[in-house]
Amino acid sequence: MPAFIDLTGNKYNRLTVVSRAPSVNKHTFWNCVCDCGNNFVVQATYLKGGQSKSCGCLQKEQARARLFKHGRSSKSSPKVQQYTRELHIKRRYGLSLERYNEMFDEQNGLCAICGYKFGQKPSDCYVDHCHATKIVRGLLCQNCNSAIGYAKDDPEVLVKASQYVANFKFSLAR
Question: What pTM value is reported for the model?
């Protein structure tokens, strides 16, 4: 059995050991005070091994710092929402913001199929892509994007759907 080592007064990252806490299942615990003022009980091996660095305030500070990246300050702010959308488009479709904006301008801010004007609702512009090849085809409204998705990108199904609707409209006109 290893000799008892008193950690009282030692500082580990942001935690200063104040006193020994009751042992649990043969594990030694210590009462600590964090630099932020919170009291915290930590297992000795986590203190010495560096796994416990604070009462949790360090993790919160690091998360907050990530939110301030690129000048965005809170999850609900428009800048954060825009940045999150930019990241999504880049990761999911490999599309840079510049190329996305070029496509938007090339389509005059309209759905490539039905001509719906984007911007009437938040997030109403969808990036259409082939699910097999992952190649981006254009920007669509939610309805057109869903229709292509439900047809499983099969042009024959879409042609048959078009003929079906055209025949139905023709029969009503008689």
Answer: 0.54
